[in-house]
Amino acid sequence: MKPLYLITARGGSKGLPGKNIKPLNGKPLLNYTIDFARKFTSDDNIVLSTDAQEILDVAQAHGLKVPFIRPESLASDTAGSREVILHALTYFKERGIVYDSVVLLQPTSPFRSGAHLQKMLEMFSFDIDMVVSVKESHFNPYFSLFEENPEGYLALSKKGNFTRRQDCPKVYAYNGSLYVINAASLQQTPFAAFSKVKKFVMDEIHSVDIDTKFDWLVAEVILEKSLWSNA
Question: What angle do CA 116, 183, 120 make, to 5 degrees?
Fold first, then answer.
């Protein structure tokens, strides 16, 4: 297994402008992810994909060489993660370096655990598409998620005869923290079409994904109260 540790950090952010390099407890948010990747591999196998010079500058100031700027065509709101990952894989392949898998890391998830990723790497095999980190959702389509029907009334998203949420089938949401991806699968099909995906369940703290000012405040409290260990 030869994974590329890919950090994706687009410059634009509507919910929290500049969040990827905003200091969290005195440290740029991006640097939490760079430091995490360095626990598993050398900088030769870590690459930052960004369209923003200011993000590139922060990474380089932290000692990470950035070999390319993401093309403008992959920097829009409509650009998908698949295209960004394939661009990075192609960049290295054209230079004689072939990665068979990708560990996708987003800077908005600062509270990762090395033990979690180690377990996910052990779970991965080339007969599956992906191992992904998730959290159990408090909202359940059998109990508390609704869709509007043709008459304009709310109806449960999935039918079931459940009177308590605890009795419903468990449902999970991707938490955005860790993805271990089969490069061959990604070249053949988009994420949404993956059929062989294994989950790794995380708790609420390790699942924090910073997208809004409220999320940022939550992250500050976690650090202030020492609720997270980076082991």
Answer: 10
Q: pLDDT of 150-204, one tens digit each?
A: 999 999 999 988 888 889 999 999 999 999 999 999 999 999 999 999 999 999 9
Residue ranges in the chain modelled with pLDDT below 70: 77-78, 231
d(CA 4, CA 82): 14
Quickly list H helices, 133-193.
Answer: 183-188
Lookup: tokens for 83: 């295209």
CB–CB of 104/6 below 8 Å? yes
Interval 85-94: pLDDT, tens: 999 999 999 9
Count CA atoms closer than 13 A to 190's CA, side-chain side. 6
The whole-angstrom separation of Cα 29 and Cα 187 is: 30
Q: Which class for 79: exposed (0-12), middle (13-18), buried (19 or more C-beta within 10 A)? A: middle
State how far the Cα of 41 lies from the Cα of 46, in Å rounded to an integer.
7
Q: How far is CA 141 from the centre of its chain?
A: 23
| pTM confidence score | 0.93
Residue with tokens 């940022």, as numbered in its chain: 216
**CA torsion, ordered 127, 129, 130, 134, to nearest 10 deg:** -120
Residue 72 to residue 69: CA distance in whole angstroms: 9
Beta bridge partners of 101: 3, 182
